[in-house]
């Protein structure tokens, strides 16, 4: 863990912080923002005469040489040849082979699903309900703290300089590395995997929302906050008219990513081998893990198919309309 955190810290200091600071030059604002990140590495490179000489005498000539030059090509008329017919035959064979594989796989899947009993399907449906509830709970609990904290970090320059690197390092640590300690604590105080599965989902997904909220808060033009100050908007009015509409597209992107991560985390959070014993809780993740361990391939196929259907339906019926709304109504255009 110490080595892992050390590598993450060094990478953040030498790569990500300079890139984040350098990216500020592409931000369009007519009012200078106070929330400007800094990087000691980038400042050193900008002041370095060696880097300046290398850029002027090596990098620019190389890029100029490698850049393609526009050429005036004469207009030519393409005449059909025998190669086009050969290409059509190859495409037809490829599509036919792909269609055969799909049909054959579908038939094999149907034959496997016929082996399941009513109780198997009932356990899959029940597991889908439990996992959906845990995903929704993890999402709501993550939103309750990531939105205010993300906005505070994104709009407070001093706090962003202090907390953003810490948050980036914490987010880079795999959730599964911390899960044994968390599970041991939950087992001792009570709750076990029923609460632990939700906690693991949050550990693996809340960072997606937090980073997107921070980026959304930082992308809101300073002119809007200047106008809110001029019109003397109260805190609730600022959140309703400036902050929430400004971060909404970023928030939807973070939620979509976080929910996908929560579904993935369900497989390792609902079926755990810990201290020589196997701990489970009802859900699709535990069904998939147990079916894989016991070579119950029909049950594995059914649980995976149901999870895939739930994810696709959620994307189609919930996230896609919200994403379209964010693009059409809440996107800031300059």
TrEMBL record:
Residues 128-318 form the ABC transmembrane type-1 domain. The keyword Translocase does not apply. CDD domains: TM_PBP2. It is found in: Cell membrane; Membrane. GO terms for biological process: transmembrane transport. It comes from the Bacteria. It is a multi-pass membrane protein. GO terms for cellular component: plasma membrane. The keyword Acetylation does not apply. Keywords: Membrane, Transmembrane, Transmembrane helix, Transport. PROSITE patterns: ABC_TM1. Residues 64-83 are annotated as: Disordered. The chain crosses the membrane at residues 89-107, 127-154, 166-189, 195-215, 242-263, 299-319. InterPro entries: MetI-like, MetI-like_sf. Belongs to the binding-protein-dependent transport system permease family. This is ABC transmembrane type-1 domain-containing protein. It comes from Dulcicalothrix desertica PCC 7102.
